[in-house]
Structure formats: C-alpha cells, structure tokens
Design brief:
Number of helices: 17
Shape: globular
CATH topology of the largest domain: Glutaredoxin
Helix content: 25-40%
Radius of gyration: 27 Å
Number of domains: 4
CATH superfamily of the largest domain: Glutaredoxin
Bound molecules: 2-acetamido-2-deoxy-beta-D-glucopyranose
Keywords: Disulfide bond, Endoplasmic reticulum, Glycoprotein, Isomerase, Redox-active center, Repeat, Signal
InterPro entries: PDI_thioredoxin-like_dom, Prot_disulphide_isomerase, Thioredoxin-like_sf, Thioredoxin_CS, Thioredoxin_domain
GO biological process, one term: response to endoplasmic reticulum stress
Number of strands: 20
Distance between the termini: 24 Å
Strand order of the largest sheet: 1-3-2-4-5
Protein name: Protein disulfide-isomerase
CATH architecture of the largest domain: 3-Layer(aba) Sandwich
GO cellular component, one term: endoplasmic reticulum lumen
Largest sheet: 5 strands, mixed
C-alpha cells in the first residue's frame, strides 16, 4: 500500500519537475522503434544480445511525451556500432498483458534493458529525452566499467553532478577485481562505474596503496573509500554512501535520483518544507546538523522548496500558510506535524518526536454544517460518530474528486441512497480520501473508488460487486443486520465474486501512470 501511495506522489513530483521538458513533435517517416506483441516478442528478444523495450499504454500521457524522444533516440542509435535496437509493447492490449506481467510492469512507461537474448533484465534508469537516452544507452551497451587510462579519459568520464564508483587496483586481476566486475554488471544501470591503475587520475585524487573502491558524489563528504571487497559489503557501502544526509527537493532534475531513493527507503520520512528564496540559508545548516545526528537511525531527511512541492502539500493536506513546516511520516502512515517552525525549534522537536512525545497529526476536512444530500458526507472527524458508533448499516465510498470511475458511480449512489431514504438503519456515505486520512486499521484504500460496507454490528466487508443500483441494494439487503432476523449465512467467497475487477484495476493503473522518478 505504501509503495503505491508513494508512486502517486512520485508521479506528481515528476509531472511537476518535468513541465519544462521539450515536447517537440517529429514527423516520423520510417519508424525505427520496433513494435512487438505477443506473437513475436520472444523471438525478437531471443535474437538480440541487447535490446531496449518500452512497455506503454496508449492513454498514458508520460508515454505520449516519451514517444517522439524515444523514436529520435532509436534513429540515432540505429547507426551506432553495434546497432542498438529500441522496441515497444502496448502493455494495455489484452493479448500482451502476459508479457507485461512477466516483466513486472507496474506503471507506464516502464523501460527494460534485455541482454543476452533476454536472459538478463535490467530497469532503464536513464533520462527521457532523446540525447539523454542516447548517451545513457551507449554507456549501457559498452563494458559495465570503463578503464581510466589517462587524464583525458578522466576528463570525459567524470562530471560534477553524478555519482561515480571507481575501483583502483594495482593490476586488473585477482579476487578483488573480479568482485568489482561482478558488482559493476549488477549496478551498471544505476551508477557510472570505472576502474583504473592510478588513483591520482581521479578528480578527488589521492593515492592509495591497496585495492580500493572510491565513490565520488556531488554532496556531503564528496568522496568515500572502502577496501572491503566482499560483494555484499560493497553493495551495502554503496547503498549507504549514495543517500545524502539531507535530500534536496527543488527544481533541479539532477536531484531526481536522490528524491527517488528517499521515497523508496523504508525509514520514517521527515519533510522540511520552506521557501528556498528567503528561508533556505536559515534552515539548511540546522536541519543538516540534526539529520547527521540521526543518520542510520531510521529517519530520512528531505528539504523541499515550497515552490516545487505543492503536490506534497496537497497529498498531506497542508496549507501554504503552515510553511515553514516540518512533517514526519512513519512507515505505518502515521504523521507528525510542526507548522510554522523556526530554525531553532528543529532539533528539540525531532528529539521530542524520537522520544514519542509528539502527538500524531490526523487530517480532516471540517465537519460539514449542512449534510442533507442523499449521500451523506463523512470526514475523518465525523467517522467515529457517523460510521463506527452510529448503530447503522453504512455503505461507504472512499473516493478522489478527480477519479472518473467515482464520478460515474455518484449518480448511482444517489439513487441507492434515495431508495433507502426512509430506512433509518441504512446510511449511504462518501469519504474524500484525498482530503481526509483514512483510518487504515479499519479500511485498506489503495485505489479509487474503494467501497466498504460496515454492518450495524461492526462487520466490515469490501464491496467488489457490480456498480449498479440493483446489485448495491441487493448487497446491502443481504449483509445488513436486521434486528429481528439472524444475519445471512452465505459464504464470503460466494458474495464477493469480483466481477468488476478490471474497472478497479484500470483506475489503479491510472494512479500509477508516470512510473517513478528517473536518473
Ligand atoms: C510483431 O507482430 C506485429 C503484428 O502481430 C507486427 O505489427 C509487428 O511489426 C511485428 N514486429 C516485428 C519486429 O516484426
Ligand atoms: C569476493 O566476494 C566473495 C563473495 O561475496 C567473498 O566471499 C570474497 O571474500 C570476496 N573477496 C575479497 C578479496 O574480498
Ligand atoms: C517565496 O519568497 C519569495 C521572496 O520573498 C516570494 O516572492 C515568493 O512568493 C515566495 N513563494 C511562496 C510559494 O510563498
């Protein structure tokens, strides 16, 4: 559940961060991108030692933006030596769904690099504009690690913005070198890797006298060395060294990979959201001190500019006037908020949080003063009274205002509610889950609409039937507690044939369109 919710935040973040990306149309004469489908996918993949496959859906906006860039890149790369082949699969097409499932496609577009006739599969983590795609794929098709032989090699390889992992060896053989090479194959899609005999060629050079892995990064201590060549230890070292003490979320796209890592970490997440143009310098050093203190203790720290984190505000239900603010979200979804924070309050507030002294922040819209439509409005602050303690049979829709399936359902729910108007034991209600925190110990809301029925005696059932007036009314009648009669003894599985699963799934996929933040 968490992962999916975060993918929504990430999608929004990417949408925001990429508004300036060029959206130039090209007139395609001859398509260089191969179109694959279930009939020829395996055959074509098996014939290639290196092929790139995009899984897309025709309705996905990010896929449409990518298409002309992907085609341009395919055209340039077709004359590379050896040629690099780019392909695409319509993963929305029923007949191709099996391939999408096999390749664990969870959002659109998803791009995979398949090597050795499809035997090795890697996620594409490069940029999404033509030049960037070309550069990234040229590096991917070459050796996993480049040799740095000269100052010229170094000058063309390194830049100031990326993470580089370099193995320094007295000779290119032996167990250390082999372990490094194995690691390079594994991590080549995530980082730039190189090996050299001379540490002095590296930008943050310093001689070393035994096999060393040097990780160069554009933040914090700028470079870190490790001499433990155990493959697992190396991976842990890299994982730890590549997370900044404070992740910065501003409009700079070179921060994308760190924002991505921040969201992926299982830790509690701290968001300090301030106005960078006037408050960054007052907050940053104090925040970083606290973050350094808690590094590796289960909290990750992000500093965001209010100008680019509007959707985080929306997601958490925060208001502009609450900034500068510090919000912590734990893995279980529980949130803690300090609005209008001052720089000197950061350290004591985090300390109180860590000691369990801060009360959770639960978001609710105000309880509506007038609530006389057929479908009643439930907010977080009224859910106890209206749902849990009302003694009624409640049919409750969790919706998002922007969700098309929810809009389609609204008039049907109205009719259902009208048909129960004179039945005071039944309540038809809706809950805007984008503006109110869902009580996650009672309801699991992963997509919209999610519908639950809670009987007067407290039996909670998901509604997964057809979204028609008749089916909903039948369902309520069959499952409500009737004071005079005993409750129905039909088996659960019989009642919850998920006839409408596809509609629900479509809505979930829409939620995830945009995939994740990319390098
Ligand atoms: C794969 O088959 C589809 C039709 O089923 C066709 O449109 C497409 O061009 C084929 N791709 C290749 C690379 O042959
Ligand atoms: C290489 O990696 C293997 C497997 O992780 C490990 O057993 C071995 O000790 C490593 N070699 C060196 C020199 O660290
Ligand atoms: C941030 O501060 C600048 C300068 O004071 C101001 O112009 C801008 O409107 C502020 N941005 C937000 C989102 O409040």
């Amino acid at each position: 559940m968490e992962a999916r919710v975060w993918s929504v935040v990430l999608m929004i973040a990417v949408a925001l961060l990429s508004v300036s990306a060029a959206e130039e149309e090209v007139v395609v004469v001859e398509e260089k991108v191969l179109t694959l489908d279930h009939s020829n996918f395996s055959d074509i993949v098996a014939k290639h030692s290196f092929i790139v496959v995009e899984f897309y859906a025709p309705w996905c906006g990010h896929c449409k933006n990518l298409a002309p860039e992907y085609e341009k890149a395919a055209s340039v790369l077709s004359s590379h030596d050896p040629p690099i082949v780019l392909a695409k699969v319509d993963a929305n097409e029923e007949a191709n769904r099996e391939i999408a499932t096999e390749y664990q496609v969870q959002g659109f577009p998803t791009i995979k690099i398949l090597r050795n006739g499809g035997k090795n599969i890697q996620d594409y983590k490069g940029p999404r504009e033509a030049d960037g795609i070309v550069d990234y794929l040229k590096k991917q098709v070459g050796p996993a690690s480049s040799e740095i032989k000269s100052a010229e090699d170094a000058a063309s390889f390194f830049d100031e913005k990326s993470i580089f992992i370099v193995g320094v060896f007295p000779k290119f053989s032996g167990e250390e070198f082999e372990n490094f090479t194995a690691l390079a194959e594994k991590l080549r899609a995530d980082y730039f890797l190189a090996h050299t005999l001379d540490a002095r060629l590296l930008p943050r050079g310093e001689s070393v006298n035994k096999p060393t892995i040097r990780l160069l990064k554009p933040f914090d201590e700028l470079f870190v060395d490790s001499q433990d060549f155990d493959v697992d230890a190396l991976e842990k070292f890299i994982e730890k060294a590549t997370i900044p003490i404070v992740t910065v979320w501003n409009s700079d796209p070179s921060n994308h990979p760190y924002i991505n890592k921040f969201f992926d970490a299982p830790d509690a997440k701290a968001f300090l959201l301030v106005n960078f143009s006037k408050e960054h310098d007052a907050f940053q050093p104090k925040y970083k001190d606290v973050a350094a203190l808690y590094k590796g203790k289960g909290i990750s720290f992000l500093l965001g500019d209010v100008d680019v984190t509007q959707n985080a505000f929306q997601y958490f239900g925060l208001k502009a006037e609450q900034a500068p603010l510090l919000l912590i979200q734990k893995g279980d979804g529980q949130k803690y908020l300090k609005a209008n924070i001052e720089p000197d309050q950061i350290a004591p507030w985090i300390k109180d949080y860590a000691e369990g002294l801060v009360k959770p922040f639960i978001r609710s819209e105000p309880i509506p003063e007038v609530n006389n439509e057929p479908v009643k409005v439930v907010v977080r602050d009224s859910i106890e009274d209206m749902v849990f303690n009302s003694g009624k049979n409640v049919f409750l829709e969790f919706y998002a205002p922007w969700c098309g399936h929810c809009q389609k359902l609204a008039p049907i729910l109205d009719e259902v509610a009208i048909s129960f108007e004179n039945d005071h034991d039944v309540l038809i209600a809706k809950f805007d889950a984008t503006a109110n925190d869902v009580p996650s110990d009672s309801f699991d809301v992963q997509g919209f609409p999610t519908i639950y029925f809670r009987s007067a005696s407290g039996k909670v059932l998901p509604y997964e039937g057809e979204r028609t007036k008749e089916d909903i009314i039948d369902f309520i009648q069959n499952n409500r507690d009737k004071p005079a009669q005993s409750t129905s003894a039909k088996s659960e599985s019989e009642k919850f044939e998920s006839v409408n699963a596809d509609a629900v799934k479509d809505e979930l996929v829409v939620l995830q369109c945009g995939g994740s933040v990319y390098l």
